[in-house]
């Protein structure tokens, strides 16, 4: 038994569990939505991978493990560090990432986006930084930065996808979110009153605007990553801001999770399995949405007659799926479910000659487009403003 209290067999098992998460061969408790979306070694060898590398525990484990997988395959790999310069230690983090990239012989790109104080008062500092970070990632991947995006990355459905979203020409952005992050996200979404899309939290794989977003560590708890880092003697940095209690996510980590672990050891892994069930349910409903949508869409628009033939719950989902398909511009607002329900109620009960209108104004913080949904000759159409 080593100084970390782990036997050589246990350390090897930890290492294998991380590698298996990257190669799609594991059977962990993650929330991978479908086997068809899992990468295997042959897939990885054909793709260009960009790793979000902060220098912390999670991204250090991800980068180190992915190098072990990719190097024998000859795959293309680049680490990307985004320095927001929001705290005194920011330059120390950047220097650490540069040093680790040198030691591991991995290409590193450092981006320093414009500081976010101007948006922080409206969006919040964390959300503003997240938007800038994703825009920086997209710029490094050679894509047009979606600087006007307002949705939570990973929760909204992408638009403008080609017929073959699995094409090896698509770059892959790899992020190190793990099971603890997944449960935190679900709890935060629950407190906000989110529906199934929000409660199912982050998918392992999602198709974005011109790239694939991959979170291979969602089946692994933070303690597993800590074991891996110890067994491989990985140096990493601790972000001091994670100890502050001015963010909801930090309060969950510092105050709520210890209580959950005391009540039920293994709670994070168990909750992650529940999230897997929610994601499977979400996929089934989304497939049903597309089937319903195919029966309602015609050249003139969305047939109101066909839409109202559906059960009430499916009317709202089909209408929302139709709106999502029209969101050609990043940052477009999506009305909450209660507004969609009210609009559909007005359509069902409108007297002859009345034409209910759904007007959606983009949030002032995002600068995205506004739109209107009109009823003309029995068909719903979208007008961008």
What this model shows, in words?
The protein has 385 residues and is an alpha/beta fold. It folds into 2 domains: 270 residues, Rossmann fold, CATH 3.40.50; 88 residues, no CATH class. Helices cover 46% and strands 12% of the residues. It is built from 14 helices and 11 strands. The protein has a 6-stranded mixed beta sheet with strand order 3-2-1-4-6-5. Strands 7-8-11-10-9 form a 5-stranded antiparallel beta sheet. Helix 1 packs across helix 9. The longest helix has 28 residues. The radius of gyration is 22 Å and the shape is elongated.
Query: What gap, in angstroms, lies between the N and C termini?
Result: 66 Å
Shape: elongated
| Spatial sequence of strands, sheet with the most strands | 3-2-1-4-6-5
CATH T-level topology of the largest domain: Rossmann fold
- How large is the radius of gyration? 22 Å
Number of helices: 14
Helical fraction: 40-55%
Q: Structural class, judged by helices and strands?
A: alpha/beta
SSE arrangement, N to C:
HHEHEHEHHEHHEEHHHEEHHHEEE
Could you name the ranges where pLDDT drops below 50 across 5 or more consecutive residues? 26-37, 118-122, 145-166
Describe the largest sheet: 6 strands, mixed
Strand content: 5-15%
Which superfamily, in CATH terms, is the homologous superfamily of the largest domain? HUPs
CATH class of the largest domain: Alpha Beta
Number of strands: 11
CATH architecture of the largest domain: 3-Layer(aba) Sandwich
**Assembly type of the shown chains?**
single chain
Mean pLDDT: 81
């Amino acid at each position: 038994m080593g100084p970390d209290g782990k036997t050589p067999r246990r350390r090897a098992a930890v290492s294998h569990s991380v590698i298996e998460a990257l190669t799609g061969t594991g059977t962990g408790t993650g929330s991978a939505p479908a086997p068809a979306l899992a990468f295997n070694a042959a897939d990885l060898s054909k793709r260009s991978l960009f790793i979000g590398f902060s220098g912390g525990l999670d991204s250090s484990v991800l980068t180190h493990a992915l190098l072990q997988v990719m190097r024998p395959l000859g795959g293309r790999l680049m680490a990307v560090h985004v320095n927001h310069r929001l705290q005194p230690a920011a330059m120390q983090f950047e220097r650490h990432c540069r040093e680790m990239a040198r030691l591991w012989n991995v290409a590193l790109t450092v981006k320093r986006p414009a500081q976010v104080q101007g948006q922080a008062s409206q969006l919040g500092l964390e959300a503003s930084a997240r938007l800038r970070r994703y825009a920086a990632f997209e710029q490094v991947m050679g894509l047009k930065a979606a600087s006007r995006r307002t949705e939570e990355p990973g929760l909204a459905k992408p638009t403008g996808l080609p017929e073959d979203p699995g094409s090896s020409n698509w770059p892959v952005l790899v992020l190190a979110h793990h099971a603890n992050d997944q449960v935190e996200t679900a709890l935060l979404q629950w407190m906000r009153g989110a529906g199934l899309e929000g409660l199912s939290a982050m998918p392992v794989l999602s198709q974005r605007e011109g790239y694939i977003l991959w979170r291979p560590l969602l089946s692994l708890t933070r303690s597993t990553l800590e074991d891996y880092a110890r067994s491989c003697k990985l140096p990493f940095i601790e972000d001091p801001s994670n100890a502050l209690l001015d963010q909801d996510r930090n309060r969950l980590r510092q105050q709520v999770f210890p209580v959950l672990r005391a009540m039920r050891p293994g709670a994070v892994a168990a909750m992650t399995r529940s999230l897997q069930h929610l994601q499977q349910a979400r996929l089934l409903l989304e497939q049903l949405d597309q089937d319903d949508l195919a029966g309602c869409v015609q050249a003139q628009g969305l047939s109101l007659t066909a839409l109202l033939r559906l059960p009430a719950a499916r009317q709202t989902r089909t209408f929302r799926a139709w709106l999502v398909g029209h969101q050609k511009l990043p940052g477009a607002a999506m009305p909450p479910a209660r507004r969609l329900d009210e609009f559909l109620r007005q359509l069902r009960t409108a007297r002859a000659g009345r034409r209910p209108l759904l007007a959606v104004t983009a949030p002032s913080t995002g600068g995205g487009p506004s739109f209107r949904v009109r009823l003309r000759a029995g068909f719903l159409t979208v007008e961008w403003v």
